[in-house]
Amino acid sequence: MNIDHLRKKFSNETVCRQFFESVIWKDGRRCPHCGHAKSCRLHGAHLRAGVYECYRCKRQFTVTTKTPLHSTKLPLWKWLQAMYYFVNSSKGISSVVLARWLGVTQPTAWKLGHCIRAMMDQGCQTAAILNGIVELDEKYLGAKPRFEHGLKHKRGRGTAKQCILIAVQRQGSVRATPVKSNRVRELSPLINSWVSRQAHLMSDEHTAYRSIAKGYAAHSTVNHQSKEYARGPVHNNTAESFGALIERAKQGVFHYMSRKHTSRYLDEIRFRWDHRLPEEKLTRAGIKKIIMRPLPVMDLLRAVLSQAVGRVLQRTVEGSVVDKEYPLLQNQQPSFCR
Hints:
Elements: H1 3-9, H2 13-24, E1 39-41, E2 52-54, E3 60-61, H3 76-88, H4 95-102, H5 106-120, E4 133-141, E5 162-169, E6 174-179, H6 184-194, E7 200-203, H7 207-212, E8 218-221, H8 237-254, H9 262-274, E9 276-282, E10 288-294, H10 297-305, E11 311-315, E12 321-325
Helix pairs in contact: 3-10, 4-5, 5-9, 8-9
């Protein structure tokens, strides 16, 4: 589906709003203030479309209330258009380019982008535990030091760069989060919460992984220092591929990822990785190859909006954004977890 097809499918604001309501309220319309299931639609010459009033608390709400779209002044079509660009991008989209394509200011596009990334955080409560072959690796995110004659700067471990822990199930989901260091006390709680004890871990020869892997079914390593990157099925190249996606997004699109918002950018990259399906392809040489294809656009848009309830991003005095979390009401599923 290209952007012209999307515009034809969502030809006006009414159709856009009906799509939002069908996804966000897929189990029935509920008041976001008190959780009551009964409400009525309000009509009036001077009343905007899509406003409802709860029978219990008598408060008004719309489909965007208490979501990252809370109190938005933008048309819902602009939001759908931005989500379309996000889910179709391979490495992300900068706020400068997004502002140009949507016809809004750069600060508006910057906040809009972080709101979409908040919805792309699929949460750790409902995420499946990684099992089977699980690859582990760290990615060090940061700028290259200035050149100094006669001085060789260290790379990766041992630097002040932001460390990101990556765990990937082969042909499956990925988990990634910033960590303070690559020591056992930092990595162990995360890996134990992400990975099944019956999994076969594969990593490099980092001592922290050797210590953590004692509680798992099996552990295989490759020695990168001796230029060994694969030994038959033993490798952690899938985890390194996800790390390469992070690096390409930083170098080619964003150029800078602040430590404060690194987890949001990881949520965006992880969302696109997780929403793919393996497809077997036959090469010209007659070799079967597995290609990961993204889900259809409409499925991706529904996946983004399905996690909208329960989080609002507000601007700070400094111009940044912070999460404003609301308590989950009865019959609402947790939409995110930090």
